[in-house]
Write a structure and sequence with these properties.
The protein is α+β, with helices and mostly antiparallel strands and 145 residues long. It has a single domain, classed as Roll (Thiol Ester Dehydrase, Chain A). Helix content is 21%, strand content 39%. A hairpin with a 5-residue loop joins strand 5 and strand 6. 36% of the residues are buried.
Length: 145
């Protein structure tokens, strides 16, 4: 996989040629669109994502947005490069509904040799916004990892 660019890796996952990461089964997240600097996942909260108050846990939105922002940055990385989130700021706008597919959109703001910045939105089919995030990711060489 180190021979593929970040964009090529995600395109291969979208085409079913590479497996999706395990976190995609936990949330669940389905990759729907990949382009340079942008990704779209579909995330649907179910009863497994409820907090003690009976609402969708905030970690659901945070994880979906961490994934979309990180993968947006990944699309801009060359072969042998990786990333790790070092800062994620999530603003919950309204409660995430149960059993409603939401798009987790990620878009790059800037990527340099050592750091990437992206933002993301969690929205429904009508464009209603449920959460917003900004992310900072460290960019590094994957050689020897």
């Amino acid at each position: 996989m180190n021979k593929l660019s970040g964009l090529e890796q995600l395109e291969a996952m979208l085409a079913g040629k590479l497996p999706v990461p395990p976190i995609a089964k936990v949330i669940p997240l389905e990759l729907k669109r990949v382009a340079p600097g942008e990704v779209t996942f579909v995330a649907t909260a179910d009863e497994n994502h409820l907090n003690p108050a009976g609402r969708v846990h905030g970690g659901f939105a945070a994880t979906a947005l961490d994934t979309s922002t990180g993968c947006a940055i990944q699309t801009m990385l060359g072969a042998g490069k990786g990333y790790a989130t070092v800062d994620l700021s999530v603003q919950m706008i309204r409660p995430v509904p149960l059993d409603v597919p939401l798009e987790a959109l990620g878009k790059v703001l800037n990527v340099s040799r050592s750091v990437g910045f992206a933002e993301g939105w969690l929205v429904d089919a009508t464009g209603k916004r449920y959460a917003h995030a900004t992310a900072t990711c460290a960019v590094f060489d994957m050689q020897g990892r």
